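Hi W.,

Here's what went into the run:
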Amino acid sequence: MAPATASAITLTVNGEKHTLTVDHRTTLLDALRERLELTGTKKGCDQGQCGACTVLVGGRRVVSCLQLAVAVGDEDVTTIEGVANGEHLHPVQQAFLDLDGFQCGYCTPGQICSALAVLEEHAAGWPSAATEDVRPEAGPPALTPEEIRERMSGNLCRCGAYVSIVQAVAHAAEQTGGRTAEEPQKETKEPAA
Amino acid sequence: MKEFTYERARDVGGAVALLDADPQARCLAGGTNLVDLMKAGVERPGQLVDVRALPLDRIEPTDDGGLRVGATVTNSDLAAHPQIRRHYPALAQAVLEGASGQLRNMATVGGNLLQRTRCAYFTDTALPCNKRSPGSGCPARTGEHHNHAILGASEHCVAVHPSDMGVALAAFDAVVTYETAEGAAELPLADFYLPVGETPHLETALPPGALITSVTLPPAPVAARSRYRKVRERASYAFAIGSAAAALDVSEGVVREVRLAFGAVASRPWRARVAERVLTGQPASGAAFAQAVDAELAAAEALPLNAYKVPLMRNLVLALLTELAEEAAR
Amino acid sequence: MTTTAKPPAVGVAHSRVEGRDKVTGAARYASEHHFEQLAHGWFVLSTVARGRVRAVDDEAVRAMPGVVAVLHHGNAPHVATDYVSFLGPPDPTCAVFQNDRVPHAGWPVALVVAETPEQAREAAEALVVEYDEEAHDIAFRADRPDAYVPDQGSPVAAKGDLDAELAASAVVLDATYSTPEQHHSAMEPHAATARWDGGRLEVFDSNQGSMWVADELAKMFSLDPASVRVRSEHIGGAFGSKGMRPHQAAAVMAATALDRPVRVALTRRQTFAITGYRSPTTQRVRLGADHDGRLRAFGHEVLNLTSTLRPFVETSAALGRVLYDAEAHHTAHRIVELDVPTPTWMRAPGEAPGSFAVETALDELAERLGMDPIALRARNEPAVGPLSGLPFSSRDLLGCFTEGARRFGWADRDPRPRTRREGRWLLGTGTAAATYPSGAAPSTASVTAEPDGGFTVRISAADVGTGARTALTLVAAEVLGVDPAGVTVRIGDSDFGPAWVAGGSMGTRSWAWAVTSAAEDLRDQLALRGQDVPPEGLTARVDTARLLAELAKKERHSFGAQFAEVAVDVHTGEVRVRRMLGVFAAGRIVNPLTARSQLVGGMTWGISMALHEEAVRDPASGRHIGADLAGYHVAANADVPLVEADWIDDPVPGDPLGIKGVGELGIVGAAAAITNAVWHATGVRHRDLPLRPDRVLRAEEAGQGA
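Here's what came out:
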């Protein structure tokens, strides 16, 4: 018998179990898009260089293009399709919509999944490369625009919506109780009607 | 990407047995480099041995006051760990300066050390590359090499090691523990990477089939005052074009101990032992810092497009040591 | 005439009408339509830069698991290439597999089709293609003896004696600037799914003009235009790269040969090779001025490269014909043919690289004159088109500078370079002008009054992220006097008839014209019928060709003033933009929310262009080295500070619409504002983009610093 190059796996995506047989070469990204028709997760580079395919695995953000489906194991996967509560948008989604945190929309699901994780990581006290003093004695950093920019830098946006993305994440952080700090410059954006 | 079999190892012995039995097998941990290289056709393993379920994901104190970091600890967990941040802040900073939040959640400590160069000739299978295809040549020397090595390279390869984490580990005398069918063994990071020479495709001193199980940080009080600085071509989410980890112990204006390692200048994280030797016992002054870093960089051999790395490293290290000295004086 | 008391829709910020679909993942892009029996095509691209394909050894690959076809020049059907499409002669790159010639590295030589993407990728990798390689030439240099003046567009425009005026000038600047090869890098790679459905060819594609692609496919495959339908509902960015490309043709070929749906999705690396790019430029600018700053001479000569397949002109010298007048005014383009892929339009084609050279040169001239750079521009403000003599439809460049200077705090600036320091950073500020044509092209549209009281707009427009769908919703609602929620805009479908593409900053203006006209027509019809809507609905359809022909001939452009503050660490070469402000005069703003995003997006491209973007070709192989998003850097979030865009009133008398485009304007001048700020910070003038740390450091080491 030839050694198996495909395996039967069970993926738990947005709380729903899916049993399928995958070619070992299949990434989580392709399993979601091609097999489960969950096309909200986007393929921007397929090389871990853009972040468009960001999903949460076991509650942590990962790039699903470099995650083999067979290796996901029994960890829960959350994709953009599982972020809203029914018809009720998550505050991060609502902030992206209201503050125009996107243009073409292709990087957006990855940005939103990443932003969800950024809020969690920040709440857990994780430092970032923008954190002046990483020692625990320095205390957790405030979620300044600089911190948001650094933490969101794994998600490229070619339309150039970063300014609105940072505002949307800051706004959502306020909504969800995160600590934020105001940008010193004057704000010009008017909210959508 | 060719077809492959997949095994999820349950214990270290099982993983080692699988790796030992199949020379075509490769360890899969975070997959952030391996899966990418498989898609590019650079890596073509026949079997993947998934080691992420192994019980190697802990950070524990050692008896002598150091820390043992399991090989499958993710970059994120390493950088967030209070003891790492307290006792080896440059290591936490180095990890945080690497890749992105998503990649750091996947990538592991063991995988980080084993990652391959990002030299664009290495990752383009249509082109010659001595590292990927021994004997085919190195077009980087006469081609695009603005982010290639200035130290320790050879005419056969001028690629750099892309790790940030490794630079801090090198500065702190980390020791790699691995397991083979023969049992456990250790390799100081200083001996972990092989010289480039005529065999750039042979990168580490690990025996075939070895599984990295942990990386140990010996106690190093000097590391508590340490810092990592990285220069790259965008403000985040980019590989270094030059970086340095430094730790400095100054008392009464004299350098008692210094640790210094460079990134993005060589085929490995580059421990700057010459500079350390020159500086130890000297006054903590700009002149002494400059003398030390110049002594290290005296061995630099630059190509036309990467000659800037010499002043870059000099300036970077000078600024870093000055900052640390000012902090110490405060 | 509006007979309603409804509040205005146009000019009021409105979030994107498809926004909810985009933030929930419901919006489907080109490669996200699933069909029974879908097969996956994977391109094999040439590894050599010039030569001929000697053999494609497809036998072994055909036997690989899942492989259903291997298309190449030895077996592909013949297609037409001698047609003239919607936008002129076709790009020869798109008619794949027609001969054995390899004109550049990354040329499509085969398509492997398999049951799954994994099988297709492995088989494509395994396909052995043998080449007869020929020596290639990819050396782009200013002194190429084989450069020539192209016979398209307006390659040369001139008045006066440039040499004489330069000789008579009190202050002269003669400098050469360069910009590198740049790539669009839209986040969504190109993808097309083709299938035959009831005798019609249907293609789900990602493009800037579904009508354009449908027209090309019909002509290329000699099909009845009515039997071709191209749909492109959501597009993950385009920036000029998403027109007719090789993947649509390959998908149609394979779907036809196999009689089953076939998707061809490009990998990120493949997008760098076959979807176009912005040519590198080398630009000589000569300026001569009197002591008071009045320009006597304005010269701008530009060289760009093209492929051996097709001439392409990066019209970088065009903006000088609008911005500044001089006694002698010479602008000229030349091109050189090399063994490289064919360049194409990329966000603000011409104006983006051209403004870097001209607006840096103006700053250099101001420095030599000891004059404020804004005052220098004010001194040379033309009353009419400097070369055309035509009046401007509206022009308020100086209003942009005045408002921008006030908000940016320009008056407090110490003009001397290298005077501000903060820790390891040297600080500086810079400014530059922006302009872009505001053209319009004929389009058709229909507006239907539905029996349920709603309205449906149909137009073959494309929303590539511009907010066009939302803008057209507001335009229709305004004319119809209804709430925008009552209007459904359907776009991205070639069945809706001919319309202009999302390009040249002409989309919203051209489409809004058609929608306005159709909605007015419908409103009038409804008034005549006493607002009675028949059960089948009531539709008004228009073609704006005649309306556009009636438009008076004028210089029609948008304008803007860019301001940037940078921090430079000259010891490491790092440059960070600290803040940017752009103030624009861009006609009537339809949707302030999305227009601002467009302008800020363009300015963000300016940061990326100034500091990051550069494609490098390996001289030995002719290949693009590092053709991925780790090798080709675009700005990441951390590179982009608070970038603000705003506008001043810009009425356009006599223009029935008053709308101008904002898609390209934001990038124009943005890179120059940043590099001018770098000069102010460091005293070092940079004339070659991008300002990578190695270049900044090298310039400092060379002692160019003050």
